[in-house]
Amino acid sequence: MATNDVFTDALSRLEQIGKDVDIDPEAIAALQQPRAMLTASVPLRMDDGSMRYLTAYRCRYNDARGPTKGGIRYHPDVSRAEIQALALWMTLKCAVVGIPYGGGKGGVVVDPKALSPMELERLSRGYMRAMADFVGPETDIPAPDVYTNARIMGWMADEYETIHRRNTPGVITGKPIALGGSLGRDEATGRGAFLVIRRYAERAGLEPEKTRVAVQGFGNAGYHVARLLQEAGYKIVAASDSKGAIYSPDGFGLYHQKQETRKLEGVYCDGSVCELVDHERITNEELLELDVDLLVPAALEGVIHEGNAGRIRAKTIAEVANGPVEASADETLRERGIVVLPDVLVNAGGVTVSYFEWVQNRQGMAWTLEEVRSRLEARMFDAFDAMWAEFDGQGRTARAAAYTVALRRIEEALLAGGDHAYFSGGQR
To answer: CA–CA distance from 279 to each of 36, 77, 147, 337 (Å)?
Structure first.
């Protein structure tokens, strides 16, 4: 990533778009810093008896529209700046899809792949002990993120309930189904991204069978969006995971092979029979610069920046990851006619179904998978249409259009109690 401080990068984009669309300066000022940020040192007893101390964060960015909401990630590169940027984006994301949340985020500086299952559980419970007075079902609701999952959320929810001595399923979302999780949560981010891409294809006149797609990143979100795009007839020509990328101009199916063998290889499937097809090994960087119709960055932030924006050849970029395009690249991509469908809309399916889980927990009921998918589709289509109304014919980028929708909703909540004009005597 070219930018050292991802939070500074996020703020520069917020301030510029806010100024361009005439958002009240008081609303922008309220979004220039988090409401609260907790840093903790979490002790972790290792299996060999030694003790480690890991730096952990939790940010409640803005709660004007409701309790804060956001995932917890385990990654060696977690930083305070990253957590604040992700929490800011989550604030905007919740506003774009119209759910009554603000934005939050959390993380631990750790390589989870180096931990045993018991060390991972001790870390997860230790994190919740450190944050137990900072989170809550009416205050701040965590969820899974990079290298965390339903089991980890279950451990954390159990620890919170042990500390507070009451059953509180709504404190965390993304839990195992048996512990109050929602059907459809595991696929939600990828399905939400697919729905946005589908809606955009309808508006832009794209034909799935003629649309070549490259997917960078094959975690949960990348897997599900690739699966759904492939099932809808899109041609997947390239994909990557943390070990590298594969490319075949004729396209291939890959999600079945990845799920079965954990190896990213191109396959062609006819019914239940799958055969390997010829594919070229390339780097993640080369994948980003392929001549494709749709590029789907679904890994980490900052992979498209000032240094490589001029070499991006995709006609459309759908940001499934958080912040994969730096602000420094926006103008170059715009000048080259590349449409960027922004993360605050594209990957909002995850937080939307997390909201559904929270609602189900508070109501003491469970929805069917069909209900979850139907409600998600309605939310994503409504959010896309609100963005499109600002984008179509307005001369704005899709990102500026989505930010406009979000900032106006946040502005309305922030200023509902009065603004400068009111308190200075200009209005009554």
So the answer is: 49, 32, 28, 30
| Joined tokens for residue 242 | 């943390």
Which member of 69, 105, 258, 315 is catalytic? 105
Domain 36-169 has CATH 3.40.50.10860: yes
What is the Cα–Cα distance from 275 to 277, expressed in whole angstroms?
A: 6
User: Is there a common fold for 36-169 and 188-346?
Assistant: yes
**Percent of the residues in the chain that have a pLDDT greater than 70, as a whole number:** 92
The span from the CA of 17 to the CA of 157, in Å, is 38
Both tokens of 267, joined, read 């396959």
Topology adopted by domain 188-346? Rossmann fold (3.40.50)
Q: Is 263 a catalytic residue?
A: no
pTM of the prediction? 0.90
Q: Name the residue ranges covered by the structural domains of the chain.
A: 36-169, 188-346
274, pLDDT greater than 50: no
Residue 271 — left, alpha, or beta (φ > 0 → left; ψ -120 to 50 → alpha)? Answer: left
More confident residue, 129 or 265: 129
Query: What is the chain's percent helix, strand, coil content, to nearest 5?
Result: 45, 20, 35
